[in-house]
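Question (not urgent): is this output format expected?
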Amino acid sequence: MTQPETLAQYWLHHVRRFRGSKKVAVRQKELGIWQPYTWDQEYEHVRNFGLGLLELGFQRGERVAIIGDNEKEYLWGALAVMAVGGVVVGIFTDVTPKEVEYVVNHSDATFVLAGDQEQVDKLLAIKDQVPRVRKVIYWDEKGMWHYNDPWLMDFREVEALGAREAETHPDRFPALIVEGQGTDYAMFCYTSGTTGLPKGVMLTHENFIYAVKAFGEIDPRYDTDNYVSFIPLAWIGGAALDIAPHAVDAIILNFTESPETVQENIREIAPDALLYSSRLWESLVSTIQVRMMDSTWINRFLYNLFLPIGYKVADLQFAKKPVPPHLRALYALGRLLVFKPLLSQFGLHKARTTYTSGAALSPDVFRFFRALGLPLRQIYGSTEVCGGAVAHRKDDIKFESLGKPLPGARVKISEEGEILLASPGLFAGYHKNPEATEKAIWVDDEGTRWFRTGDAGYLDEDGHLIYLDRMKDMIELAGGERYSPQYIEGRLKFSPYISHAMTIGDKDKGYVTAIITIDFDNVGRWAEKQGIAYTTYTDLAQKPEVYRLIREAVERVNQTLPPAARVRRFVLLHKEFDADEGEMTRTRKLRRRFLAERYAAIIDALYSDARSVHIRDTVRYRDGREAVIDTTLRIESLK
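Got this back:
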């Protein structure tokens, strides 16, 4: 076989490499025991299922929908479909029968793989609405012994059909794999459909192979690497991080016993790489901190002794400065005695690479895990670019950024401030939706296809991509510049001394200002260490020293913003924003319209030459008491 062009061709290459060996391809935890399957065994299952599909009338180019949990049969079914020239269509397990009907019909699927009884029941409920589907093939027969619909078929029955065909024509299956081309469709990945019906993103084998190799350049993968497959395989994350690297790089996939045992199984396998959402990383910090509080006194002592050393090393690494030999030695001791045993409790002690995706992650979380020795980094992309197009490099991390383009990928910012992505991983289009495809793709004068992400951002002086907000949520200033209130507020709240911030700016205003509330506990402790006396929240907030402290935080954020979005003036409010007074929702989101009306006098002063503003406000305490605050708030101006 010449240079592989498809995922199946890469996979067949590894099958031949490991033929006759005991090299593990996948593991599945079943009944409490990890069951290994060699590459020979995997080949037999994939070959038999693929040939079985052909015996059932499957034709090259047809689509097969798969709905089920991450299990070995999902992987083998997907590999088999692609091997015989088909297209995999993933469906999330938590969708309704109506949503299954839409994806199956829209993708023109002729077969459906269903994991268990729950998913089979969804198909049976819509049987008359999906006339193209010839068979529904299930792999977990539990609870289905009384089902006798001829439309249903057991995964093992399909394999039996294929095994007989393989005996008669042993060369047929590899010959089919060789026929594949890189431009063939590998998968249709359906978007979430939050703004309408889901769109079928058409991705080719070339797209997936590029994505695997691009990430491999910044994070090499090896055929000895263990990955735990828990990200839904219907999502681009599961397809691009599990199925494709298994085929191209021969990584070992480990399938958990159930969705409920993921954390336990990750701890058992200790994977070489891991992707969590930002919410999960933040939750993990809290879990670690609580666990250390409940630990023995000696463990707490060692943790509190070495964590500051870890922070010093992490900060030097972030600043790209050398770590002194004495710090390096102390840190190595801390890794041995504290950090590595602590990470091992969560299965993270062997991880060479850990990624976060989705919402921006707090710098405090980045620093914490870096202090423990965990190489945490950010990924940015979308289904349309085969998962990722931008990522942090190991030794080039900026808290406020998403990283730099992957090898072969490009990023540019449109005149309107929208992030545009060009990449060999860029999708072919939306299935049956040329209008949406045309809207999503812009072709420049050189013929380069750019994906319009719908996200606002900019590139900093080092070429790092800074994400601001969705374009539709940006606010335009008087000069025509656009900025993201949520982005600036989120960055301001990274300071431990700021509890909340509301940024202001609109078409009738020439610049951005902010109303900031201090974190009373943290600022109070800081003031005590500085020997600053104070009485109340209002008194503390208006101290000149506190204004200088908060000004430093605002200036740090301003350095990461384009000039038009920088905070030019701010005021420290005399009180916290309060949900009981209608200033915030119960989920701690600001009620902007209410706040703009309540603090209209402050906002007017921020957009004048005033250096202060007098306020008279009624404050309601939790015990029902009310008090009138009559004070003057200082207004701070920045360059």
